[in-house]
Design goal:
Layout: H1 2-12, H2 15-23, H3 30-56, H4 64-79, H5 83-100, H6 105-121, H7 128-133
Length: 153
Amino acid sequence: MLVRGFRAALRSATVEQGLVRRLYSTFATGLPGAGLLIMRLVAGAVLIFRGVAGLTGALAIGPEPVLILKIVLALFLVLGLWTPVTAGLAAVLEIALFFLRSEDPWLHLLLATIGLCLALLGPGAWSVDARLFGWKRIDIRDRQPGSRSRSDG
């Protein structure tokens, strides 16, 4: 009965509330959360730098729509917003660039690996995803001694 009730609760959750929460049972805190934050910031910074450098002509990375997509995905990664989707898309984009462009294949492979790891591990506690989709803690205070509830009497 408990299992059936749990499944019904999962089915009744809206897509917005349940999608990211179902992917990750918790949003890592402490040192693992700090590690995920550092991974998101570094990957996002490199993607933003390379996207802007490509738009200004300093690097020949790809067409403008690809560079703009790279910058948008990087901003979402830095914020930790829709992390599984944005990190997965960033990994696919970098794998495509790995095969299509040969100027720096190891950087594309590294960014694809970081994107895949972030998609699998999650954004961590210091992210917009954790604020929007993370479990909330509700503290219920004990009743004051001597106070009576409606059922007491």
